[in-house]
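It is worth pausing here to work through a concrete case rather than discussing structure prediction in the abstract. The textbook approach is simple: state the sequence, then state the predicted structure, then interpret. We follow exactly that order.
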Amino acid sequence: QVQLVESGGGLVQPGGSLRLSCAASGRIFRNYMMGWYRQAPGKQRELVAQITSGGITNYADSVKGRFTISRDNTENTVYLQMNSLKPDDTAVYYCNLDVGRIDYWGQGTQVTVSS
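Step two, the predicted structure:
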């Protein structure tokens, strides 16, 4: 069974930073794309960032230049470094593992940006 566990969320002031982590249990997932999505209350889930097995990244326009996704395949962990946070970044952030026809999701971690 695949299990993804997010951590690192919390309350931060505008302009601050947070680092999210997603640890995958069991097998090594170095051959698959992983990513971060977020969902704010009353809104659809949206892509934040993706990273391929080879380290190629893709970001939503709203976070380019502020967020950085990375992965440690040895530890089966993907990270999201979030800088210059804005109130609009407030959402539940979900870790995603894409194995082609199947997607696995974590439980989510809350990020709140407020003064």
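Step three, interpretation. The mean pLDDT is 94. The CA atoms of residues 101 and 115 lie 41 Å apart.
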